[in-house]
UniProtKB/TrEMBL annotation:
GO BP terms in the entry: Mo-molybdopterin cofactor biosynthetic process
Signal peptide segment: none
Domain Molybdopterin cofactor biosynthesis C (MoaC): 13-147
Catalytic center residues: 125
EC number(s) per entry: 4.6.1.17
Oligomeric form and interacting partners: Homohexamer; trimer of dimers.
Annotated pathway: Cofactor biosynthesis; molybdopterin biosynthesis
Catalytic activity: (8S)-3',8-cyclo-7,8-dihydroguanosine 5'-triphosphate = cyclic pyranopterin phosphate + diphosphate
GO molecular function terms attached to this record: cyclic pyranopterin monophosphate synthase activity
Name of the protein in its database record: Cyclic pyranopterin monophosphate synthase
UniProt cross-references to PANTHER family, sorted A to Z: MOLYBDOPTERIN COFACTOR SYNTHESIS PROTEIN A (PTHR22960)
InterPro entries (alphabetical): MoaC, MoaC_bact/euk, MoaC_sf, MoCo_biosynth_MoaA/MoaC, Mopterin_CF_biosynth-C_dom
Pfam families: MoaC
């Protein structure tokens, strides 16, 4: 059984030494709700700070690679692929999807969730001067595959 507690009940990193490496993949999603005018500014490429989607994409990829430095007890992983996709959603939002892959001994759910959340925070940071009422919402794991715990797909 995997646990973050040792025999004395202290927090510890899970020992994955005896686990066989397998192909693993996870997809996470976040949404940022904003004023329609803010979304129009982003989509039109007229934001004074530059291409909001491009900067958020890079921020998400960098965050996935640094997850073990941000989340206590996460394993440092050698990711083989990180993709962050952003798209306008309706007239007042952005949908962010982050997909992480590797062949390893532990999953990449936290990396995908971290990528999506940091991409959302980057959008907020770049747009807060024009829209302080933005709301980051619906951060969730959409799917994962590989590993002993089996596959998962959100309903």
């Amino acid at each position: 059984m995997l646990t973050h507690l040792d025999a004395q009940g202290r927090a510890t990193m899970v020992d994955v030494t005896d686990k066989l490496p397998t192909a693993r993949e996870a997809v996470a999603e976040a949404r940022v709700r904003m004023l329609p005018a803010t979304l129009q500014l982003i989509v039109a490429g007229g934001h004074p700070k530059g291409d909001v989607f491009a900067v958020a994409r890079i921020a998400g990829i960098q965050a996935a690679k640094k997850t073990s430095e941000l989340i206590p007890l996460c394993h440092p992983l050698l990711l083989t692929s990180v993709k962050v996709e952003l798209e306008a959603c309706g007239d007042d939002g952005v949908r962010i999807r982050a997909r992480c892959k590797l062949a390893g001994q532990t999953g990449v759910e936290m990396e995908a969730l971290t990528a999506a959340s940091v991409a959302a925070l980057t959008i907020y940071d770049m747009c807060k001067a024009v829209d302080r009422g933005m709301c980051i919402e619906s951060l969730r794991l959409l799917e994962k595959s590989g590993g002993a715990s089996g596959d998962f797909r959100a309903s």
